[in-house]
Structures are given as C-alpha cells and as structure tokens.
Design brief:
Blueprint (H helix, E strand, L loop, with lengths): L8 H5 L17 H12 L5 H8 L3 H13 L4 E6 L8 E9 L4 H9 L4 E8 L4 E7 L2 H11 L6 E15 L30 H12 L5 H8 L3 H14 L2 E6 L11 E7 L4 H9 L4 E7 L5 E5 L4 H8 L9 E15 L2 E2 L1
Antiparallel strand pairs: 1-6, 2-4, 2-5, 3-4, 3-10, 5-8, 7-9, 7-10, 8-9, 10-11
Helix pairs in contact: 2-4, 3-4, 7-8, 8-9
C-alpha cells in the first residue's frame, strides 16, 4: 500500500513535474550561469537587480540567464516544508538492493510515490536510496511490510529512521564560484513553532512549492488572501522553520561530478562530535543521525571519481572515532525535495 499523509496534503504540496537537465544528460553551465545559480541558492527569492549588484554583472544579463535557467527547470526554486514541524510525519532512509538491471525501474517506481522526498540510484552495497516521509510508526510498518510488494526487482531492503538532522545545506555552491555572496545572506529569527499551521498556510506552501519565486501578490490572488496576509504568514512560517525556500540544481552542472552518500559507524558517545566535524565541512551538505546499523548518514560533494580516494583518507571520511564507512556514488538522481527529476 502507499501511505498517504493526512488529507493527501503532502501530495498536494509537492506537484511532481518532469524537469529538464536530468541526471545523465550532457549539460554544462558556464561561469556566469554558475554564479547566478549559487546566488539563488543563497537567496532563492532575491531580485535580479540584487543578484546582478552582488555579482557585479549587468541586470539584463542576469535576468536573461536566470529566467532561462528557471524556465527550462534546469534550476528550480521551491518551498520545502519541514515534515515534523508541520505535523506531516518523520523521515526514514530506506536502502534497496535490486535484481541486476532493475535499479532504475525500482527508482522510478519509488519516485512516483507521494511519500518519497528523495530517490537516488547508487553504486554501492545497495542500489537505491529512498527517503520516505511517514506520518506514524504504524504507517512505517505498513510501508516496510506491504508497500514494496508490488514493485518488482527489489531483493532486499534496510531502513533507518532519521532521529536528528545536523545539517541540510542548499547553498553548497557558494564557495566554488569565486564571488562573495555574503550580502545575500538572510538571517531569520528561527523561533520555535508557536502556532498551528492552518489550511491557508498549507495553501501558500503548496503554491510556492510549484514556483518559489512567485510574487506574494500572485500567491494571494491564487490563495484568496491579501498580499499583506501572505507576506505575514510566510515570514512567520520561515521564522518558525515550518518551511524554507530551496534552490535545486544537479551537482554535476556546477562541476561536482561525483556526489557521494555515505554511512558512518560510530560509537554513541562520539556521535555528536563526529556530526559536528562533518557539518563544519563545506563539501558536506547533509548530515543526520539514524537508527540501524550505521549511526550517521551524510551526503558529500566530490568533484570527480579521482577525488574519492582522497576523500576517503582525508578529514572528511577519515574522521577520528569513525569505525567504518560505507561509501556510495550517486549515479543518478530521480527525485529531490519531492520533485521528480
């Protein structure tokens, strides 16, 4: 069975749209495009004039280039809700071992599910990595026991519940473009969620999930709210961490041709220290503590196959207190942020 979040809200919040620039296709962004993308990662809703000023480029060039990247969906700006803070459930990482030649078909089937946020094909001990968002532990049991039965090609599965997220970075390209993007940084209050997320809030997030750069006036017209109401609600939800704006682009388009997903075995008493050291590294864009065989999971950006050996012996993977690492090369991305690639 496919677990649907209450009132099918999660499915509504994340329309699954095919995108250009799929992994595996040959596409290269030049230096100007990469700078624009990095700027949008730092400030997803920044005006083209502001981006042009920070990058010291003409506004017409930034507007033309940026609009092309967004219109082609090589780059997409989206509203990404926190499932726990919006009472939608909790994340679980599931590794799938597949029959020979079946990994991609399994990955596509997993990407089609409304309860998956991330689907990657890996060259690793397991073939496919899936991040599920499940509302309850009982629904997780249903998924693990029944949900994969109709998907042919799965040989074995292993699940790990995410019990704490230490880092999720969406501005991972900023250090690679040679421009100071600090002027685009936006500091938020990040207070604890102190009010219920209502249907109007969910409607706003749903609209912005399809296009995170829509004006608040346009969002209000679609949602049946005033522009000022939309602005107040969005500011409150962002301050509370209920959702965030994120800019998505495949790493290889920015020169990171060998992204890795890595599992770390560490002693419980060393877990937070290892997580903190990993989180401090710019190459690491995701770190979470999990249940199961391994205690930490991380996504690490590598520029090429030749760099993987250096990574495994460097401060990134050769962290003190780590007993074992299981390194998987991401060979294709099928879904990120609930969006099918």
């Amino acid at each position: 069975m496919i677990v649907m979040v209450r009132n099918d809200t999660m499915a509504r919040l994340h329309p699954h749209r095919p995108r250009a620039g799929k992994s595996g296709e040959s596409a290269v962004l030049d230096e100007v495009d990469r700078k624009i993308v990095a700027a949008l990662q730092v400030a997803p809703r920044a005006s083209w004039a502001r981006v042009a000023n920070v990058l010291e480029l003409s506004e017409s060039v930034v507007f033309r280039r940026g609009k092309k990247l967004l219109d082609s969906e090589v780059v997409q700006v989206s509203a990404l809700p926190d499932p726990t803070l919006t009472d939608r459930g909790f994340p679980v990482l599931v590794r799938l071992r597949c029959e020979v030649g079946e990994a991609y078909s399994v990955a596509r089937a997993m990407a089609a599910r409304p309860d998956t946020r991330l689907v990657l094909a890996l060259a690793a001990s397991y073939d496919v990595l899936v991040e599920l968002i499940v509302p309850t532990r009982h629904s997780l049991g249903d998924v693990l026991q029944e949900g994969f039965k109709d998907v042919s090609g799965i040989v074995e599965s292993e699940s790990a519940t995410v019990i704490r997220n230490f880092k999720t970075s969406f501005d991972w390209a900023r250090a690679s473009v040679g421009s100071d993007l600090s002027q685009l940084d936006e500091k938020r209050a990040c207070s604890e969620l102190n009010r219920t997320v209502d249907e109007s809030d969910l409607k706003i997030i749903e609209i912005l999930a399809g296009n995170g750069r829509l004006s608040y006036k346009t969002v209000g017209e679609i949602a049946g709210l005033s522009e000022s109401s939309v602005r107040r609600r969005v500011d409150a939800l962002l301050d509370n961490g209920a959702f965030q704006f994120a800019t998505y682009v495949e790493p290889d388009l920015l020169g990171f041709n060998a992204p890795l997903f890595v599992w770390f075995d560490v002693d419980a008493r060393d877990l937070e220290g290892v997580a903190a050291r990993l989180s401090a590294l710019p190459e690491v864009r995701y770190v979470s503590a999990t249940t199961g065989k391994s205690q930490l999971a991380a996504e690490i950006l590598s520029r090429g196959i030749d760099d993987i050996y250096d990574l495994t012996t460097s401060e990134i993977l050769g962290v003190d207190d780590v007993k074992r690492v299981d390194v998987g090369l991401e060979v294709r991305s099928f879904k990120r942020g609930f969006m099918i690639r």
